[in-house]
Amino acid sequence: xxxxxxxxxxxxxxxxxxxxxxxxxxxxxxxxxxxxxxxxxxxxxxxxxxxxxxxxxxxxxxxxxxxxxxxxxxxxxxxxxxxxxxxxxxxxxxxxxxxxxxxxxxxxxxxxxxxxxxxxxxxxxxxxxxxxxxxxxxxxxxxxxxxxxxxxxxxxxxxxxxxxxx
Amino acid sequence: xxxxxxxxxxxxxxxxxxxxxxxxxxxxxxxxxxxxxxxxxxxxxxxxxxxxxxxxxxxxxxxxxxxxxxxxxxxxxxxxxxxxxxxxxxxxxxxxxxxxxxxxxxxxxxxxxxxxx
Lengths: 166, 117
Known about the structure:
The complex is a heterodimer. Chain A is α/β, with parallel strands linked by helices. Chain A has five helices and seven strands; from the N terminus they run H-E-E-H-E-E-H-H-E-E-H-E. Chain A has helices at 11-19, 61-66, 97-101, 109-118, 139-155, and strands at residues 41-46, 50-52, 76-79, 87-89, 123-124, 127-130, 160-164. Chain B is mainly alpha-helical. Helix content of chain B is 50%, strand content 12%. The mean pLDDT of chain B is 96. At the A-B interface, helix 3, helix 4, helix 5 and strand 7 of A face helix 1, strand 1, helix 2, helix 3 and helix 4 of B. Strand 7 (160-164) of chain A pairs parallel with strand 1 of chain B, so a sheet runs across the interface.
């Protein structure tokens, strides 16, 4: 690989990651794109822990402070009309300055509205989704929250999803 | 996040992941991946840099269209403009996260115990 995944990490964290035992489950699922891009409806999903201020609550960081191995597994909905000044961010494992300046560094709603306007994609769905990426145990994501988000996407006619881990 | 990509894909959605850690995509298995060498918190680049954001998104769309089977990883050539030492610090939270704080405190307690014994 040419991209060095550890370039910007402190040595101790990089070493920890390299030594984590992980199991690749086969087969890797694959759903071919069913339509041309210009006919596809997209939703966006990030793990940046952003929320729409005043509409939905922020992620539960108080519990994480008391239980450092726990991370809030729920998700927040971000509407396509969201304005930058409505974006809140509370990820405790990153500096949130840049996403508070421009949500498109991780949840590119405004870029996708431009792609929709130029006809490169069919449409951006009414709703995009934000999770909080610090999850030591992904069981709740797998069993509950990811299927819930997928069902909401299907209700909105979504064909394809851009995911951006934070 | 590979878990989310895989679960959505299993639910019948076509997904593409844009990540600064393609290492995990390779080890865990992700349907389609674009890798960029950027610091955490910046999968699509810097704030206000809509050209780079759009350039990466267009590559992701192309991969969605062209992939014929699972597991493809395409790496892009964008360079991060900050000095490395500065970039390594800049993405990190202003205060240590709860888990890092706990580890620091544990190490301190171990050291004190050793010095006391």
